[in-house]
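Researcher: Here's the sequence for the chain we discussed earlier.
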Amino acid sequence: MKEKTVGSTSVVMAQQMNPQDANPAGNVHGGVIMKLIDTAAGAVAVRHARTNVVTASIDRLDFHHPVFVGDLLTLKASLNLAGRSSMEVGVRVESENLFTGEVRHTASAYLTFVALDPAGKPVEVPPLALEGTAEIRRNGEARARREARIREKKTEREGQHRG
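Model: Thanks. This is the structure I predict for it:
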């Protein structure tokens, strides 16, 4: 299976936020932003695997600044790690006030996807070719998050068997 680069599967999406995306005060709902994050990350995972994928987890979703009606939301998504059948995608969300030009780092998230064959079983994904120090750093950070998730799941299973 031929390896793929981060750049060959990255996605940039932009969408202006409208009144139906917000509460009566004009703040965009976090769930609207979460859906866009999942959409952008899912596109990256499908581009890498070239098969159906499902969201397995969202590891950290931190909101740093609010988003308002009229803001342009830009999502930058790229692959950080490719395992056997799973992939971690990082998403950075920025909001821009189109009148002032002010751009704010709004949110960041890490999502894990699993590639599936037509029968719904996990299928192997291509390896990830890392280019440059930033990609190598993000890959190392993703490996650490993956190891932490595995430890957490093991601890949860052990606790369920005791309780």
